[in-house]
Amino acid sequence: MKFPKRTLALILAVLMLTAALSACSGGKQGETQTETDPTPQSGNAEGANIGEPVMGGDLRVGIAQDLDDTFDPHNIISAGTREVLFNIYEGLVKPDNDGNLVPAVAESVDISEAGDSFTFTLREGVKFHNGETVTAEDVVYSVSRAAGLGADKPMIDGMQIITSVEATDEKTVVVTLGEPNIEMLALLTAGIIPAGSDPAVETVGTGPFKFVSRIPQESIVIEKFDEYWGTPAYVDSVTYKIIDSGETIVMSLKSGALDLVAHLTSAQVNELGDDFTVLDGTMNLVQAVYLNNAVEPFNDVKVRQALAHAIDRQLIMDFLAEGRGAAVGSSMYPAFEKYFVPELVDEYSYDPELAKQLLADAGYPDGFSFDCTVPSNYQPHIDTAEVVAQELQAVGVSMNIKLVDWETWLSETYLGRNYQATIVGVDAAMMTARAMLERFTSDAGNNFVNFSSAEYDETFAAAISCTDDAEQTELYKKLQTILAEEAANLYIQDLCDLVAMRKGVGGYEFYPIYVMDMSKVYFTN
Asked: Is the peptide bond before 103 cis (omega within 30 degrees of 0)?
């Protein structure tokens, strides 16, 4: 259950005196799903793969937000949209659940020694959902569109260095870059669509499921694609039911209206009985109090640093998920093991007295008040906001929680940048460190926190032009260090991802990116 606000302070006081519980273990690169019994009330998870899988059935999945207005695989704004479209669209390559890039529409790729040319051999017989066979022309159109060739800017950041996409024969496509880029292959997971098509008009991909229907704010239905080139999906269809209330989503599970829901809190799974298996992973995102660095008082680094010392992230993790989750200290989550800098987790110790001193030095000896905008459909962020507000109150800062619906958050906060602070999770649109860090460059279109640093911009430019993997890795780590030292945001955690499945449902797997692969989920006999 969700604790009433009036009891939150007492619970926080109790949690401060208790030992931290175990950290979340699932969802990292190289690992498969783990099972957990989050609380005694939730029942024992006897296994995600109980019984023999059977083909068929209609799966009902609860999600907290509607999708973007268009199902455009080259212009995805929200992570929730990507989570669904992963099942409909595929690129030349795609990620597997270990974080590897594996062949998809292309059966193989040859990368030039200089790293500035990628030659793809297309897989035979790949079909679009409209029944047409994928051709080299379709691939040229799709990659050129995503790269913005002939347009003012790319649809996918990072693809602007593509200078040409050519079909050398019916099965071969060559992607040429203006400069070497060792991360480009990850960007070529972008969906392949029919030549000349507009995803705003027709949703046609090559994935294991095809789009059937959508009722805005209510549901999205996808159906198994019988001509899929790869391993077929088990279930016949998936109906995503949009439920923006945390209480309603739990009631829907308990009533039998839903079979599977991800991204639950510990309090929510505690309400479920023995009829459910609960899996424990991480969401592969960075949850933080994201600050608008362009507005007062957050344009003062001392204020941002003060608030960083005022937040006890372990207490937040204890309250949300009984200690589960992975603490972060900058804009990178642990599944990016190669780039993650664990030392930054301890950059700001929990020190309310130091926080008060820094506030006084910044001219706020009596603290200040600000609004924190939180999307009302995400219970973990709402619960986090309640804890943060209590913690900041202890240093004289009043954080007013302003709940808004998802569409308002997207238009006003994220796109309009009309806010002071917000609590959300930010993920990697593509499986690259660049995708996590480019948004904080001064001129990035998705730099919704308005962070600006000449040193950061120069370091980022050096990182993306670097062709030495070890050197590039160190530059990406330096970028994270700058964000931490500047307290660009108040970094908290990669949220624990609790997935509830009705008994008789199995096969769910965690990925190192924010997706749900419905092709592997099945009913059992």
From this structure: no
